[in-house]
Amino acid sequence: MEKQQQYEYVNTPAGAPTGLVERHHPNTNSSNNNNNYHDIYTRTPEPFLQKYLGNPKYLLPLIGAIFLLAGHFNGFLSKRADVDLTNAIEVFKPHSPPALTIDERTDRILSSVPLIDTHIDLPILARALYQNHINAPNFTVPFKTGGLYGQIDIPRLKTSKLGGVFWSVFTPCPAESKDLSESFKNEVYYESIHDTIQQIDLMKRIVRNFPNDFGFAKTVDEFEDVFYKSGGSKIASVLGIEGLHQIGNSPAAIRLFYEVGVRYITLTHNCNNLYADGAIVPAPHWNGLNPKLGPGLIREFNRLGMIIDLSHVSAATMRDVLSISVSPIIFSHSSSFSLTPHPRNVPDDVLQLVKKNGGVVQVNFVPDFVTQSGDGKASLEDVADHVVYIAEKVGWEHVGFGSDYDGSAVMPDGLEDVSKYPQLIKELLRRGVKDEDVKKAAGGNVLRVWREVERIAEKLQKEGEKELEDEVEKMKFEL
């Protein structure tokens, strides 16, 4: 709209000037010619078309000028078209926001996906050093305020930004008899079962006693609820059992442990058992799985929804299980054999089987498993080397973290305790790992595996697959 020019007159003459239209001030009376009132007039321009196009004297020269200008303008456009188009695109092209720093990217990642450690040994430490008395001040005070012996307490867990932990329920292997047939008898494992029950109870009491810091989870949905609904302030807590010697040769025990929240069982510790060979043993007994009892037990894991953990097992056991299991497996705390040739680590050919299976290798931080230095020392960079190596071999969908905190007196420089976890995330980002891939390793892969284990278990149960029953000797019984 063309801006109007305003003029103000005092003692307006009787004949208003040409082109001026009277507009009365709101406080004036149009019929009153009193000199105390001001009449305001607005000049309205004479219409352009009426003045020029309606007069032949102007019309023909104007048309000629238009054609002349159009010709010049067309030539100008043809020469400038490419440049102008490029400039226009540059002007209107959306500009990316400033790049985030490594620290900002780390914070964003760990607020969007739970950082998960699949192997922390707090239960055995609390049982061994505090004699199961977790309500005593010598445990509760340092655990709550900081300074608890070991590598874990609540302040350090808060700094770690961990969103979830699989707490390891560990008991040592029973002593092996010289007669191996005696080593696998049920009574050999009674103490192991007893201690396992105590540690399950201990860890569940810790979670219950600190409800603002922990939340127990039996399913992936419950796990995610604990993390997301608390805004990451609570650690989703799950249980894992570290060896089949802890079930006392009883598939029934697996089901009972499942009911109280155990979601993975390691098939062996540093010993052979009735079902499989371990990695660190004087000699193999089955050369992998027990061919008679092993396959049925693996099938029961799949049917039940118990995650199979292949850390601690022999390479032959790894291959046997991966040829049988229809559910993805995990290595809860193992690293790369190619980088560090330790029997507890995962060979390259097995990594390929893990990829095919859809499983995940959770890298162990313990120096012996991530370096060949020979002096018992390792660094954060050594751990990152194993993570990146496995990812480059089989993809970022198949690697994660299983520290073994509180399971080893010495940890790598830069990862001395759980509070240093964000430094590992930053190291991966510094190496050029994409944020989405870091999210997978941080926790996305474990949740994907667990959800698939749940899905397959539901499918097998709907199809009518029955549970594996214990073998019980015939006994005399009279009423």
TrEMBL record:
PANTHER family linked: DIPEPTIDASE (PTHR10443:SF12), MICROSOMAL DIPEPTIDASE (PTHR10443)
Give GO BP annotations, semicolon-separated.
proteolysis
Q: Region entry Disordered: which residue ranges?
A: 1-37
- SUPFAM superfamilies (alphabetical): Metallo-dependent hydrolases
What Pfam families does UniProt report for this protein, alphabetically? Peptidase_M19
Catalytic reaction list: an L-aminoacyl-L-amino acid + H2O = 2 an L-alpha-amino acid
From the Swiss-Prot or TrEMBL record, what is one GO molecular function term?
Answer: metal ion binding
Enzyme class per UniProt: hydrolase
What cofactor does its activity depend on?
Answer: Zn(2+)
- PROSITE patterns in the record: RENAL_DIPEPTIDASE_2 (PS51365)
What the record says about family reads: Belongs to the metallo-dependent hydrolases superfamily. Peptidase M19 family.
Compositional bias (Low complexity) spans? 27-36
- InterPro entries from the UniProt entry: Metal_Hydrolase (IPR032466), Pept_M19 (IPR008257)
Q: Which residues cross the membrane?
A: 58-77
Q: What is its EC number?
A: 3.4.13.19
- Record's CDD domains? rDP_like
The record's keywords, sorted A to Z, are: Dipeptidase, Hydrolase, Membrane, Metal-binding, Metalloprotease, Protease, Transmembrane, Transmembrane helix, Zinc
- The name this protein carries in UniProt is Dipeptidase
